[in-house]
Amino acid sequence: MSELANPVLPGCYPDPSICRVGEWFYLVCSTFEYFPGIPVMRSRDLACWETVGHVIDRPGMLDLDGIASSGGLYAPTIRHGHGLFWVVCTLVDQERPDRGGNFLVTATDPAGPWSEPIPLDADGIDPSLAFDDDGRMWLHGTRPARAPEWPQQTEVWVREYSPEAKALIGAETVIWRGAVQGAIWAEGPHLYRIDGRWYLVAAEGGTGFHHAVSVARAAHVTGPYEGSPANPVFTHRQLGRSSTVIGAGHADLVRAPDGSWWSVMLAMRTADGVHHPLGRETFLCPVAWENGWPVFAPGEGRLPRAVHTPIAGDPPRPGSWQPDGARAGDVPPGDARWTALRAQPYEIAAPEADGWRMPTRSGTLADPVAIAFLGIRLQHRDVDLRCVLDVTELADGETAGLVVRQSERDHVFASVTRSGGELLAAITHRRAGAAGRLASARIASAGEVGLTLRMRGSECTMSVADEVRACVDVRSLDSAATGGFLGLWLGIHATSSGAQPRGLVRIVRFAYEPSGSPSSGR
After folding, report:
1. Could you report the per-residue pLDDT of 248-260, keeping only the tens digit for each?
2. Contact in structure between 198 and 218 (CB atoms under 8 Å)
3. Are residues 287 and 340 in the same domain?
4. How much is the pLDDT for 318?
5. CA gap 418, 415 in Å, rounded
6. Are the CB atoms for 45 and 309 separated by under 8 Å?
7. In terms of pTM, does the model score above 0.85?
8. How far is 357 from 354, CA to CA, in rounded Å?
């Protein structure tokens, strides 16, 4: 028996999808504009996960340059069949829709390498795959309804996919337009062949407070589908704003080797019923079957605070990431938590013996390009972050520092700028695109500069060299305040602010230390 606090993947791990092959479970989630894209995580017990690779992990696989925050890679699905692992996903570019679209990749090993993306002639978002008993493959997804009965109504379509032709074949059939009259965004659909029936599990109500799970079933994959009389079969919206977990939905089902059923889904932890700086996280939910229908969290009707799985997990291997903070402290190069923006981390910086060597780039935090940035997800409500930067080789006029990032329009930057023989330390809050300086001072030029962050609940205090300090309410940075779909990232940024880059910064130390358990704030 394994036990772990929910969520099993804290921080911004939204839109989870899961499959099982043998004794291993494999899970993927959305990564939007962050690279490497679509982490592949595995677990034996559904509770402790390690990242074994990424689906989009090579330059040139996909072009995210110019894609703004909360665009990029949406809602991947992972499945196994025909001796291969399959991932389908959507690349979203609101400014250039011709660049986006649905695609498919395959691999014999989930750790990679994954194939080059195969474009799919299918509109909409949130594609998924299902395998019939005879081996036929069915691709499905969601899109705005062609003939909507109400605003923001969507429809789920299904069409056969030919692995030989690497293309969709045959006729398309619309199978679902929402379980509840007036419900918006029937999305995140997944089809399953279970005990001779086809089951459709779909999200509904939008990926916010009113998020919900609905279920339908049919004798044939193309329908007609009947909705469960209990629809929506799972949601937290009836708990109101006093609930400490909101927005539960976007579920995917999996069966464990012992025959038990489980679901992974996203939800948001909140202290005030609205704000959720950690973003949409991955939770685990038990599932039972009654009268031919799945029952989520039977007897409880809400996501459990602690997950008890009947599968005995192995002790964590050295180097594996554990969501309970077992690797708290220094985050060295090679740690799977490192991400960059619109480029691979090794394209942005070079690993050294004790950190990173990051050349400056001309782009700033306000630019939707591949800037000089390396960061990790915020995964705890209470955390201390300590980093040391060697700024000796920053060129005159160049800037480097510590960032709390939501998007191009919303972030906080604690920085130093080289100005002749001095350093200008400053803390700046960009809010809705407008930058305001919270604190600044000139400090003596030094080889190394320490920067710290202390977060307790919604209060975040940042400092530069123990001389410049400012406090920010992180609720002003979360997606409830700013829009979009992301949780917060903590990272290092270096820029020449539009000038020709000449210098570099060394990340000598980057230490992330949680204070308390990952379930704090529930």
Report:
1. 999 999 999 999 9
2. yes
3. no
4. 35
5. 10
6. yes
7. yes
8. 10
Look up 466 and say whether it is catalytic: no
15 as an active site residue: the answer is: yes
132/279 same-domain check: yes
CB 267 within 8 A of CB 219: no
CB–CB of 462/425 below 8 Å?
no
Distance CA 127, CA 119 (A): 12
Q: Closest Cα to residue 356, out of 387, 397, 311, 317?
A: 387
Q: Is residue 205 part of a domain?
A: yes
- Would residue 510 be called left, alpha or beta, if left means φ above 0 and alpha means ψ between -120 and 50 degrees? beta
3-state DSSP assignment of residue 480: helix
Containing 79, the helix (H) or strand (E) segment is: strand 72-81
Q: Which of 33, 45, 160, 187 is catalytic?
A: 187
CA distances from 91 to 19, 43, 59, 185 (A): 22, 27, 16, 18
Q: In Å, how far from its chain's centre is CA 154?
A: 23
- Residue 355 clears pLDDT 50, i.e. is over it: yes
Domain that holds residue 403: 329-514
pLDDT per position as a tens digit, 185-204 = 999 999 999 999 999 999 99
Tell me the pLDDT band of 340, cut-offs 50, 70 and 90: very high
